[in-house]
Design goal:
487 residues, mainly alpha, 7% strand
């Protein structure tokens, strides 16, 4: 006897039939012949539908909405609709997920995924009616669970719902990381350091300003992802095969959309032109581009963290990343920036996935894009990797970063970058000469300015006050000294 999750006596089978012929199916399986054939045909990636619970839940939502709509329109007997809905609710609550076994990458524009969902729901519904699995004369996966649907509208609708849920989860994780950077910005608000352009000394800033920039850039990416997520709420459910709505009641599209909105809590919109919507995958290209943007900018931030923490002797050594593991099997005491490094690698994967999505979208033909499975696989991988990467960066890196305050101050004091703050007061030519002398003699800028009588101590201190070094000058500049400094 099998339990509700499909576990039972190993080796026992039942026979099921499709247009190709008979095929044995494990007796304890909730899936059927179409899924069994897909398991043979598509042993591709090793990533199953159930490895992305968002997709399983999304499929159950679509099938529940369809059953409710068909029942409301008198197209499905109430007793059958009730058990289909009950089975879908169980799946949405986490049951039977292990029965969604088809590889995420498959031929057929998602047909195998749709069949897998139809069969699992049908066989669970049969049990609720008191019938054995496979007794499709009582309740059929296609005639009843798939009523008023085609893979070409049910599958992309489920894909959009799954991606919407995954985007929401990524947004929440990104916000945790943004707040972690913002907290460090507050912590380092008074820590003076030297900014750099093209890896060369530039002008002073605070470490708080630097980390605040990381928080702001994440916030901007959250806004872009929120915008892209909203586009996923336009669906083509009711389009059936190519958008004409064949085999569906004229009222079905509006009815099923309303039911699905109620189930998911999302304000879904039926696409205004269902033929166009059935062949168009532009929303996935848009989302993929935003994910690439997030990956690129997050990777750049991690590059910065690796540079700022480089050393401790031969690098910048401005910040310390938390030590999370030994860095070398041969060099004792070495610690590497492994957390930023893993996020860099995630970014490379996301960028590659964007290329895949682009090519798959371009390859669509006429009334359908057959390559939505690889689009789904790529986007779900990108979303999951970015989510886990952001979580890892927050928990194991950013929250534990510390600053080498004394070293940062010393670098500022001995940098020619200070002369920029004096240039409006002593002129560009004199500033250049002072900078050259400072580099040649390795003496501090302030000392040379006083020695040459370019400014008095009070004015020099005012111009080099931290508040003036890291923002607009708070008082008028003095008139430049007309004398040209001799080199």
């Amino acid at each position: 006897m099998a339990d509700e999750n499909g576990a039972g006596t190993a080796g026992a089978t039942r026979s099921e039939h499709d247009l190709i012929g008979d095929l044995p199916v494990p007796a304890d399986a909730y899936y059927g012949v179409h899924t069994a054939r897909a398991l043979r045909n598509f042993a591709i990636s090793g990533t199953r539908i159930c490895d992305h619970p968002e997709m399983v839940v999304a499929l159950a939502c679509v099938k529940q909405a369809a059953a409710e709509a068909n029942s409301e329109l008198g197209l499905l007997p109430a007793p059958l609709a009730e058990v289909i809905v009950a089975a879908c609710r169980e799946i949405r609550e986490g049951r039977l997920h292990d029965q969604f076994v088809v590889d995420l990458i498959q031929g057929g524009a998602g047909t195998s995924t749709n069949m897998n969902a139809n069969e699992v729901i049908a066989n669970r519904a049969l049990e609720l009616l008191g019938h054995p699995r496979g007794d499709y004369a009582a309740l059929h996966p296609l005639d009843h669970v798939n009523a008023s649907q085609s893979t070409n509208d049910a599958y992309p609708t489920a894909v959009k719902l799954a991606l919407h849920l995954a985007c929401e989860r990524l947004l929440a994780t990104m916000d945790e990381l943004r707040r972690a950077f913002a907290a460090k910005s507050d912590e380092f608000v008074d820590v003076l350091k030297l900014g750099r352009t093209q890896l060369q000394d530039a002008v002073p800033m605070t470490l708080g300003q630097e980390f605040g920039a990381y928080a702001v850039t994440l916030g901007e990416d959250q806004d872009r992802l929120t915008e892209a997520t909203a586009l996923l709420r336009e669906i083509n459910l009711g389009a059936t095969a190519i958008g004409t709505g064949i085999n569906a009641d004229p009222r079905y599209a509006a009815t099923v959309r309303a039911r699905l909105s109620a189930i998911t809590g999302l304000e879904l919109i039926t696409a205004p032109h269902l033929v166009e919507a059935t062949s168009d995958v532009g929303v996935f290209v848009q989302l993929s581009g935003v994910l690439k943007r997030i990956a690129v900018k997050l990777s750049k931030t991690c590059n910065d963290l690796r540079l700022l923490s480089s050393g401790p002797t031969a690098g910048l050594n401005e910040i310390n990343l938390p030590a999370v593991q030994a860095g070398s099997s041969i060099m004792p005491g070495k610690i590497n920036p492994v957390i930023p490094e893993v996020v860099n690698q995630i970014a490379f994967q996301v960028i590659g996935n964007d290329v895949t999505v682009t090519l798959a979208a371009e390859a669509g033909q006429l009334q359908l894009n057959a390559f939505e499975p690889i689009i789904l696989a790529s986007l779900m991988q990108s979303l999951r990797h970015l989510r886990e990467g952001a979580r890892t960066l927050t928990e194991h890196c950013v929250r534990g970063i510390t600053a080498n305050v004394d070293h940062l101050r010393e670098v500022v004091e001995h940098s020619i970058g200070l002369v920029t703050a004096l240039s409006p007061a002593i002129g560009y030519e004199q500033s250049s000469a002072i900078a050259a002398e400072a580099l040649r003699t390795r003496r501090p800028i302030a000392e040379l300015v006083l020695e040459h009588g370019l400014l008095d101590r009070a004015e020099l201190d005012r111009l080099l006050a931290p508040a003036n070094l890291v923002g607009p000058l708070r008082a008028p500049f003095p008139s430049p000294n007309p004398d040209v400094l001799e080199s």
